[in-house]
Design brief:
globular, 6 strands, single chain, four-stranded mixed β-sheet
Amino acid sequence: MSDDQRSTYCLFDIILDETTIRRNTPDINHEREVAIFDLLEDNYFELRHRDEGEDSIPGPYILTLSLEDNRLVFHITDQDEGHLATHMLSLTPFKKTIKDYFLICESYFEAIKTATPQRIEAIDMGRRGLHNEGSELLMERLTDKIILDKDTSRRLFTLITALHWKG
């Protein structure tokens, strides 16, 4: 992928709609901020046209995320905040993966206190596997609307999990 494509098809900013995504504890807010920083640092995000055969809509984009009836709403604008698209993503298919991801993260944080390096590595491999599963599901669910590369999908899945973290 060329540098020109990367600068055209990318997220310029990410905003969390505070009317539907409430601020939380300092730790949770920090996790969200880190996830957003990592995502903005390097991403490939290509907004598709609704009609088959048309070119993608060029960016860079501003993504505002909100929650509505167990759906993640992607409100996408250009840099001048002109509306480009709104997509809704049901979070139901992600529930089990996110739940399992949080459980294995808890196991990991407990393990690093007392477990052997081999046990910690095994748990971490499981954590990475669930993270990959979630990011692949995300790419699959968005494929007709938004094209993501693997790394961007992983970073966006990290942000989605940070939005669900209860601390």
